[in-house]
Structure formats: structure tokens, C-alpha cells
Write a structure and sequence with these properties.
The structure holds 2 protein chains of 2 kinds. By secondary structure, chain A is an all-alpha fold. Chain A is about 75% helix and about 0% strand. The radius of gyration of chain B is 21 Å and the shape is globular. Classes of the chains: A mainly alpha, B alpha/beta. The complex binds adenosine-5'-triphosphate (ATP) and magnesium ion (MG).
């Protein structure tokens, strides 16, 4: 129990680099993620066309030198739209991570630290986890009305229990560690113990879970859009582009293939990074559990 | 240690018990670990009292209950004349300035994400804010006092050796200027050569600051060297209490005798009655009836199984929980 707790703090740049080099796949994952994020951020500078510019003469062209990913039924450039769509899809994913991690951490820490409210919170968490993610998301969006903000809120709620459960388990371990007891013995107020010691040492499991939630959220956002319960169909996201291309799947499968590829690549990369992060950061907690 | 001395005792423990429920869920079936069972003793002001016993005998649990880090199942703890268990959260926090604990594990007792400065600063500011300059001066002084350098402030605990970490732990405990310190096996994780240095530091501090110390150990040799009085525990119960040199020189309880037999005899010629501990420690969930030590006691007879032997005064200032006079 002793050595691992220092491993995180002692994780120097050199050691991190050594671990990363052992797992070349994760470097690829990081590179893909970086590329996707950079493309999304600098979308206006890297795209050859306007995302919504229609050219009926060019409709449903297969991939070519002019339109790398082809064009859709209105002659819009798919490459451009996939990159602009990435902006919204990644934004929705990131905001979902934010919502789920904040609420999941609050609930998880409260449940893990205060035995009296643990029963209630744990039961709500278990009940929510009994529903399939996407069903719960559809129900919530239906109640809230479809919009980007509401998709984020719904997915944030859907993934809150996942974060809360991990945070609760980690908090149960941390609160029994001698340094927390030392702080109690010093008379440090409970809220300060939670802010200073518990949250700080929860950073690793939260980051790991956040990575996975990011991946799930991108998938779920696409799923919601595909089912027509997501963001407005006019907003290009990976999900809405696929949904719109669905009816032309026979004649112009590239409309669906490229945004689909973007989803697959980013989700796989995130999972890869998440797995590695877990192996680097989490053995500490898993060993104590 | 006697009842007469209780009036000027800093800590008085009266019939203290801590039973941990075992198993999980709702139907725990009422099974409990009797970590501490009906324990009474006192700690006189400015004394060093050794609490010894094998692993699992409940020493740490006693220490933690004395600081109210765990709530006892029953019993009373009086600290400096006041009922410790009656304090509400706010007043308990105030009393905690007066008592501190030094942990066995010099690794997990520090938050790995904090520097030495932050660790000690937390102790200094736990009860009232303190300006940064004053804080740094105090931290430097504390580090010097425990044999470290002020420059060590900026480092992380993992950059230190085990012995140095225990010094940091001592500095943290001293930061709140306590009267009473529980030192829970604070040297048993260290090399023998380093142990002596840390023990001597504790002794110096005790003299200089007039500290009262409960020194927890499983090794009688260390306790003999350091302590004024000894409390011997076995399976959550007290077996013997007495002045250190007397308990070590002439143990009254068979269990103390057995513990001493495990200690190498200093002079080769010196003969000592040797009894060996045979068999395993019984499960603390199913403790033997009567005397808990009888299953491993070479002198045990039928009478030992019937009643729990009370601690009785077998010689002036000497208490033993054995029905046999020896
Ligand atoms: N939080 C807890 N929950 C359940 N059982 C516990 C808990 N803490 C201690 N125990 C049990 O109580 C008994 C006494 O434990 P304790 O740690 O006080 O012994 P100890 O004398 O300090 O031993 P050691 O020399 O190994 O530190 C053990 O059987 C232990 O398993
Ligand atoms: Mg112990």
C-alpha cells in the first residue's frame, strides 16, 4: 500500500515517456486525437469549402481530388462538413464529460465520505445504471426537448453514475488512508480534508473515467442524432451527417462512411488512451481496493 | 498507574471496548471483532507508557480511540480531566491540538501530492490562519528540531528515507504543540540503526517539551529502553500493567513472560525462564472463554476456562490478569 501511493507523484516525465514508448499504440491514439482536435479547432483554415455551401451541379459526387470525401445530396463537401461536424461532436463530448465528472464527483465523494447518505446515493446510482445508456438518454432528451444543450445535459446525467461509482469506491479507500487520518487528528475541518486530500487524490480515476465518458458521449451523441432525438438536423455533427446520408446509403455510401470513420477513430483512440491512463494512474487504487 | 495515581493522570481509560462488526450488508448476524475489550488504564503526565502485544492485539485501536479517530463501542476516556467522548465536533477539534499521533507506516501517512512545507503548514493552520512568513519560520524551526534541514521544505515525502519521513511525521505532530502523543509502532518499519536515532529524538523531545507519550510496539526490548510503564495487551484485553523495568525484569503474567522470551537476552550468562508461544493467535471473532490467553498458556488449567480473570494488584503498582499467583 505504501509504494504505489508514491508512484503517482513520483511519475516523472522520463518514466512516463518510458511507459508510453512501451505502448506504441497509445502514441498513435494520442496523435489521432490531437489531429482531430486541431482540425476541429482550425476548421475555417483547413477546410476547402464552406460547410453549408450547396452546389447542386456537384451533388453526390464520389471522393475525388476536389472533394476528398465526396459530396452530399446538396453538393456540400463532406470533408468540410465532417471537420465542422467534429467541432460540435467534440464540444458535446467535452461538455458531457464536464457535466458527468462534476456531478459524478460530487455524488461519489459525498457517498464515499458520509456513510449516512451513502445508502440513498448508491441506490440511485445502481438504479440509473440498470437502464441502457441510450434509452435513458432518449427519454431525457424527449422530456427536455432536443437541442445541443439538452443533449449535453441528458448525456451528462446518463454518465454521472458511471463516474460517481468509481469516485465513491476511490473515496472509500482514500478516506481510510493514514494521511487522511493524520489530517483528522490535526483537527483539519472535514470540508478541507475533502477539498485538499480526497479530491486531489481522486484526480487520476476521474481523468481515466472522463476519457471513457468522452468516447461514450461521442457515440451516444451520434446515436441520438441518428435517431432524430439529438441536436437539430441542420447543425452538422458526425451523427447528423450520418443520419442525413442514411437515405442515400445505396447511391452515395461515402456520405455515411467518412463521418462514421471519424467517430470510430476518435472513440478507439480515446479508449486506447483511457486504458493506458488507467494502467499508469490507477494501480494505486486498484491495489488498495 | 494505580487508582491513586488516576487523579493526576493526563489520560484515563475506563472499561473501553471497541467491537468492529464483521461481514457486510444488512444482516451482519451480530458477529464482531473484539478489537478492544473492557480495557482500563491511565497515563500519568509526562510519562512514557508502552503498549505492547502481538499483531492484532488491539494496540492501534486503543491508540485511535484515545484520539477519537474511531468511536468506542463502550467505555470512557478522560483527557486532562474532561470527558473526551462527550465533546461535540467543534470542541473535539479544539482538543485535538493537544493530542497527536505518529503513524507506523512512514509512506502512506503523508499525502503524496503535498510538499513537506504544505504538510507541516496544514498542521500549523488547522486551527487558525498564520501569515506565510511566520509559517515558514516555524516550519524551518520544526524541521531543525527533528534533525532535518529547512531546505527540505520544498521536497516531497517520497524523496526521503523512512527514518527521515518519521522525523517529518514527528515535526507535523509537534506543530500543534500537543501535550500527548500516540506513537504507533513509529520505528518498527525502520532499520535497527535508524530506530535508535528516532527513539532518542522522541526521548529528547519528551524531556524538553514535557510530553506524555503512549508508545505502541510489539517489541518489548524497545519499550524497556524507552518507557516508564508498560501495558501488555493480548486479543483486545490487558494482561499486565506495571513499571517498565519490573515488568521486563520480573513479568507476572505468562503472556508477558512469553513476549520476553522472544527478546534476546542481553548478557549471555543470564538465565531466564523461557516459555515459547506455541500455536496461532485465536481468531478475534471467536475468543476463548475465560482467560483469552489460556489456549497458548503453558500454565493453563481448567479454572482458566470458566471466568475472565480480572486485573488485580499482585504486588505494589503491579497488575496482572492471571488467576495464578506466581
Ligand atoms: N476498521 C476495522 N474494521 C474491522 N476490524 C478492524 C478494524 N481495525 C482493526 N480491526 C481488527 O481489530 C483487531 C485489532 O487490530 P489493531 O490494528 O488494533 O491491532 P494491533 O495490535 O495494532 O496490530 P498490529 O501490531 O498489526 O498493528 C484486529 O483483529 C483487526 O483485524
Ligand atoms: Mg497496529
Amino acid at each position: 500500500m505504501s509504494a504505489p501511493s508514491e508512484s503517482v507523484a513520483a511519475l516523472s516525465g522520463a518514466r512516463l515517456w518510458a511507459i508510453l514508448r512501451q505502448r506504441k499504440a497509445v502514441l498513435l491514439g494520442l496523435a489521432i486525437l490531437a489531429a482531430i482536435v486541431l482540425l476541429a479547432v482550425f476548421a475555417p483554415y483547413v477546410t476547402p469549402y464552406e460547410p453549408n455551401r450547396m452546389r447542386i451541379s456537384q451533388r453526390m459526387r464520389p471522393p475525388s481530388a476536389q472533394n476528398w470525401f465526396g459530396t452530399d445530396e446538396f453538393g456540400r463537401d463532406i470533408f468540410t462538413r465532417v471537420i465542422y461536424g467534429g467541432r460540435i461532436s467534440l464540444l458535446a463530448g467535452a461538455l458531457t464529460v464536464l457535466v458527468a465528472c462534476v456531478s459524478g464527483t460530487v455524488l461519489g465523494v459525498l457517498a464515499g465520505f458520509f456513510k449516512r447518505i451513502d445508502g440513498v446515493i448508491s441506490r440511485i446510482i445502481d438504479a440509473m445504471m440498470a437502464f441502457p445508456d441510450i434509452l435513458l438518454a432518449i427519454a431525457l432528451v424527449a422530456v427536455l426537448r432536443p437541442s445541443l444543450a439538452n443533449v449535453v445535459i441528458a448525456l451528462g446525467i446518463v454518465y454521472t453514475p458511471r463516474v460517481a461509482r468509481v469516485v465513491r469506491a476511490a473515496t472509500l479507500v482514500i478516506r481510510e488512508l493514514p494521511f487522511v487520518e493524520a489530517a483528522r487528528a490535526l483537527g483539519v475541518p472535514t470540508w478541507r480534508i475533502i477539498l485538499r486530500h480526497v479530491l486531489r487524490n481522486l484526480a487520476s480515476p476521474i481523468i481515466v473515467q472522463g476519457t471513457f465518458v468522452f468516447a461514450y458521449a461521442i457515440l451516444a451523441e451520434a446515436g441520438l442524432s441518428f435517431l432524430g432525438t439529438g441536436v437539430s438536423p441542420e447543425t452538422p455533427t458526425w451523427g447528423t451527417i450520418i443520419a442525413a446520408g442514411q437515405q442515400y446509403a445505396r447511391q452515395a455510401d461515402w456520405i455515411m462512411i467518412f463521418p462514421g470513420l471519424a467517430i470510430v477513430l476518435s472513440v478507439l483512440s480515446l479508449q486506447l488512451v483511457g486504458d493506458t491512463l488507467r494502467d499508469i494512474l490507477d494501480p494505486k487504487l486498484r491495489k488498495d481496493l | 498507574m494505580s487508582a491513586a495515581a488516576a487523579s493526576d493522570a493526563l489520560v484515563a481509560v475506563d472499561r473501553l471496548s471497541k467491537h468492529f462488526p464483521v461481514g457486510r450488508g444488512w444482516g451482519r448476524g451480530g458477529r464482531v471483532v473484539r478489537a478492544v475489550d473492557d480495557v482500563s488504564f491511565t497515563i500519568g503526565r509526562r510519562r512514557i507508557v508502552g503498549l505492547v502485544g502481538e499483531s492484532g492485539s488491539g494496540k492501534t485501536t486503543v491508540g485511535r480511540t484515545l484520539l477519537r479517530l474511531v468511536e468506542p463501542t463502550s467505555g470512557r476516556v478522560t483527557f486532562d480531566g474532561g470527558d473526551l467522548l462527550a465533546l461535540d465536533a467543534a470542541r473535539l477539534r479544539a482538543v485535538r491540538r493537544q493530542m497527536q499521533i505518529i503513524f507506523q507506516d512512514p509512506y502512506s501517512s503523508f499525502d503524496p501530492k503535498l510538499t513537506v512545507e504544505a504538510i507541516i503548514a496544514e498542521a500549523l493552520t488547522a486551527h487558525a490562519p498564520m501569515p506565510r512568513d511566520e509559517r515558514r519560520t516555524r516550519i524551518a524551526a520544526l524541521l531543525r528540531r527533528v534533525g532535518l534541514q529547512p531546505e527540505h521544505m520544498a521536497r516531497y515525502p517520497y524523496e526521503f528515507s523512512g527514518g527521515q519521513r518519521q522525523r517529518i511525521g514527528i515535526a507535523r505532530a509537534l506543530a500543534v504543540e500537543p501535550k500527548f502523543i500516540v506513537a504507533d509502532e513509529c520505528v518498527s518499519a525502520l532499520d535497527v540503526s535508524v530506530q535508535a536515532q528516532v527513539l532518542n529524538l522522541l526521548l529528547d523531545l519528551q524531556e524538553e517539551l514535557g510530553l506524555t507519550i503512549l508508545f505502541i510496539a510489539h517489541d518489548l526490548a524497545v519499550v524497556d529502553y524507552l518507557c516508564d510503564d508498560i501495558v501488555v495487551m493480548y486479543l483486545g484485553k490487558i494482561m499486565e500493567i506495571g513499571p517498565a523495568e519490573q515488568v521486563c525484569g520480573d513479568p507476572k503474567h505468562p503472556y508477558s513472560e512469553a513476549l520476553l522470551s522472544a527478546v534476546p537476552v542481553p548478557e549471555p550468562g543470564a538465565a531466564r525462564r523461557r516459555i515459547m508461544l506455541s500455536g496461532d493467535l485465536p481468531s478475534p471473532i471467536d475468543v476463548p472463554s475465560g482467560c483469552v490467553f489460556r489456549t497458548r498458556c503453558p500454565y493453563a488449567g481448567d479454572a482458566c476456562a470458566s471466568d475472565v480473570p480480572p486485573l488485580r494488584e499482585v504486588a505494589p503498582g503491579r497488575f496482572s490478569a492471571c488467576i495464578k499467583d506466581r
